[in-house]
Inverse folding.
């Protein structure tokens, strides 16, 4: 099988975006990636062990996170549909903030969010740049960020909610309540500790792939199958990319 080059991957775009075509960038050496995209699994497990002994924990989500990022470099885009200046239709727009589809957007968002946490008195862990810790005489708060999702836990209920309020005043936040499910990991607490499971994630993935009733096999790939660029195209390349990425 093959993926058609005429079917580019879709982006999680909002009402206005940079566009799904290729972005032309200058080779200035400026990093575009987001440190929060690195492996967080070990940090997540460590934080959950602390969470079990803490008094309170919350899971939060930042709405339209990438739109909060500020741009340091010059980035231009064509005038978006519906906002074209009739007197200057050939003019372009210089962006002050990041948009979904920009290569700089993830890093710009992470820099904006981490800078705000540092102002609040947090410091970034040397072991994982997406883990932030706050220490004071009032107690301790841990915040683990993954793109726009986060776990917040601390030694006191009031201290955790003080920081949640400050975050909500700065960003558009969604309170997901007590932690039960985070990035594909189901969290169940009992008298012995925390039980982590990805059963729900696996079942959801099988449902998306219409394979919920499929029989188990010994290998994750068809034995003896040969792929080539001239092979039969996938009927839905976007779904294939989504499922492959979810693995």
């Amino acid at each position: 099988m093959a993926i058609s080059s005429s079917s580019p991957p879709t982006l999680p775009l909002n009402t206005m975006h940079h566009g799904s075509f290729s972005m032309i960038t200058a080779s200035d050496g400026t990093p575009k990636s987001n440190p929060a995209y690195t492996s967080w699994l070990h940090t997540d497990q460590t934080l959950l062990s602390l969470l079990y002994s803490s008094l309170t924990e919350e899971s939060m989500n930042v709405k339209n996170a990438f739109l909060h990022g500020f741009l340091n470099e010059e980035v231009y885009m064509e005038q978006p549909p519906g906002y074209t200046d009739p007197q200057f239709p050939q003019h372009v727009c210089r962006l002050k903030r990041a948009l979904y589809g920009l290569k700089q957007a993830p890093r710009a968002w992470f820099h904006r969010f981490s800078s705000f946490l540092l102002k609040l008195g947090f410091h970034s862990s040397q072991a994982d740049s997406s883990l932030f810790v706050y220490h004071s005489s009032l107690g301790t708060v841990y915040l683990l960020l993954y793109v726009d999702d986060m776990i917040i836990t601390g030694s006191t209920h009031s201290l955790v909610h003080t920081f949640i309020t400050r975050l909500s005043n700065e960003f558009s936040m969604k309170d997901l309540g007590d932690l039960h499910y985070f990035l594909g990991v189901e969290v169940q607490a009992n008298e012995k500790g925390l039980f982590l499971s990805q059963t729900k994630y696996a079942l959801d993935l099988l449902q998306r792939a219409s394979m919920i009733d499929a029989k188990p096999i010994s290998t994750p790939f068809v034995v003896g199958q040969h792929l080539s660029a001239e092979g039969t195209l996938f009927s839905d390349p976007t779904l294939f990319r989504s499922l492959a990425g979810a693995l």
In short: Helices lie at 41-53, 105-119, 157-170, 199-208, 237-246. The CA atoms of residues 52 and 191 lie 10 Å apart. The longest strand covers residues 139-146. The first helix runs from residue 41 to 53.
